[in-house]
Amino acid sequence: MYEFEKKAQFRESSILIYDYHGYSSKRGKNDISLSNLNDEEKNRKNGYMSKATARKVRRIGENWLYSLTATQKKAKCGKYVRKPVFITTTLPSTQIHTDKTIRSKCLNDFIKELKRKFKVRNYLQVSEMQKNGNVHFHIIVDAFCPYQETQRLWNLMIERLGYVSSYQEKFNNITKRQYVKYMKDQYSISQKKAIKAYHRQKATNFSNPQTCRVEAPKKVKTITGYLTKYISKNVDSSPSAYTKQSAALTPEIKKKAVINCSEVFFHAHEERKLDGRLWSCSKEIQDLRYFTDTYSEVFLTDHGDFEVHQPCIRELVSEIFKEGLVENLYQSEHFTFIALKKPIREILAEKQHPLIIDFEQHHQKNLSLAYA
């Protein structure tokens, strides 16, 4: 008789039910694991993020942000209240250095300064290529960072490589009309905003270009939405990568996916590829996991197969289907993915489901791991 479990993994707004056969570190890596590691190394060199890495980054981000915002109204870690803040940094002039150089000379020290000046403890960073060929960085931190000070700090870092001086040389002698036209064409902003930007930059002699955006979304779903968006842009969308992942798709979905994949592949390969590492994060949040529990036990015998369910989770999933709370459903031989219309915590709270206690304790533990 052979036995394995089915696990139920609870994410922010979805449930993944999958076969789990156990794992032993003594077994070594199988062919699929070795293939994924090779793909990750290959994709790092050709400017793409492997699908396995994308899942890892999403797991880290979602669990960290959810624990930070949902376990309690104010996640107080030490003396400071931790709230997620989203920072985007760009270059004000044409990039002339490698992505690796900009990361090592500018980004790394920028993050160190955020920790020193604004008491940031943890961060998650994803690199992305702009349409103009410049690299830019999306960074999530856990402390309030004033916009003007953050921008001045970033401009100080990139001036080490001469990017602010290059911006000054380009715009110092430009007329108001030329600047407004440039801003409208480049950033699709209104004339009123372009004029304001001109006067603001003129007052500083174009020494403090607008290279940062700082946002503090109230809902964790907004930030994880941003995160998913930027991760998806970096994932390897080549036909070979698609082929390895397509076995579980139905013919109709597969046909659509091939069309979409071809379009993304065509456009993505027209642009310059990122070099070096595409993401980074604090070591304290690397091992955060989704809340997972046993869904059922499956026994394979000579007389047939039978499955013993855990009533608590089985009934919850049944109720979710009955009440029409399912947004999308994806099934294969070894997993079922249920996308929900509401956050899973909200569903558990409304039903006063006993699982919410374990769910909350798990994310409280995640928070403790991140801020030990």
Describe the protein in words.
48% of the residues lie in helices and 21% in strands. It is built from 13 helices and 13 strands. The strands form 3 sheets. A 6-stranded antiparallel β-sheet has the order 11-10-1-2-13-12. Strands 8-5-7-6-9 form a 5-stranded antiparallel β-sheet, sandwiched between helices. α2 packs antiparallel against α8 and α3 (99-118) packs antiparallel against α4.
Kindly list the characteristics that best describe this protein.
372 residues; alpha+beta; 6-stranded antiparallel sheet; 5-stranded antiparallel sheet
Broad structural category: alpha+beta
Oligomer: single chain
Rg measurement, Å: 24 Å
Share in β-strands: 15-25%
* H/E series: EEHHEEEHEEHHHHEHHHEEEHEEHH
Please report the number of helical segments: 13
Distance between the termini: 44 Å
Share of helix among residues?
40-55%
Largest sheet: 6 strands, antiparallel
Poorly predicted runs: 238-270
The coarse overall form would be elongated
For the residues shown, what is the average pLDDT? Answer: 80
| Strand tally | 13
Main sheet strand line-up: 11-10-1-2-13-12
In short:
The chain has helices at about 30-45, 50-70, 100-120, 145-160, 165-170, 175-185, 190-205, 220-235, 240-245, 250-270, 310-320, 345-350, 355-370; strands spanning about 1-10, 15-20, 75, 80, 85-90, 125-130, 135-140, 210-215, 280, 290-300, 305-310, 325-330, 335-340. With about 375 residues, it is α+β, with helices and mostly antiparallel strands. The longest helix is centred in the first third of the chain and has 20 residues, at about 50-70.
